[in-house]
DNA sequence: TTCATGTGCAACCCGAGTGTTGCACATTCA
DNA sequence: TGAATGTGCAACACTCGGGTTGCACATGAA
């Protein structure tokens, strides 16, 4: 029962699912590079239709990775680092947790049998 | 052209895809907690069949997140932190990259129009 | 050898996600 | 006002991932 459950984290869940798709990562890259862009403009730089881009942006927005604001008749999207930062930290914590446990297991094994059994 | 393409990273790609699924995250948690386990044992602690677990473990192994070794007639899986660490760092780098760009954009905007246009 | 346990492989089902197209609505500009 | 541009919504097709079941094969124990 050393368990700290990392498997179900409401906010990171959406971020991980969003980042799993290559097209969405590409969108994030374009947005991070350009600072701001509309779905129509982004679609011109990708091999998919505008509607596909819109759907991807909706997923990214739901995950908190981007935010879109209306300016006149267009909707400009931009990147939002907070959610990504949070997930990066979650991941780093998980990794160090694994390291901790593995080190503990290794120590236990060595303590139980230094080189062979010793009576 | 400030672009540093984070969107297509061969190794992180698999890790992100692997982590996108809740059942796989749960598996990783069980493995990190128990240190080592077989697919059959893991299936008993999850609401899915052994075969489903086997498939998930294959995905995790392909991503480098777990490794399985045969011991007699059973295959024991354990967690491997390296790939996770690498992806966590990739993600942190991406996040700080976003921060950098956004800060630059903000400075540029403020420099261009301190409070209003000034001729 | 016989039985139990654990794994491997294959076929199959099903839902969700990705992508498309078509059209209606909104906004800007001539 | 009308034309151009951009967005929103809906229906549809298709693939793929997650899950299941069934059975064959391998290994350890009695």
What does this protein structure show overall?
Two copies of one chain form a homodimer. With 119 residues, chain A is mainly alpha-helical. Chain A is built from five helices and three strands, in the order ααβααββα. The longest helix of chain A is centred in the C-terminal third of the chain and has 32 residues, at 81-112. Chains A and B meet through helix 1, helix 2 and helix 5 of A and helix 1, helix 2 and helix 5 of B. Chain A binds a DNA duplex (30 and 30 nucleotides) through residues 21, 23, 38-40, 48-52, 54-56, 59, 70, 72-75.
Concise structural overview:
2 copies of one chain form a homodimer. The first copy, chain A, has helices at 10-19, 22-34, 39-44, 50-62, 81-112; strands spanning 37-38, 66-71, 74-79.
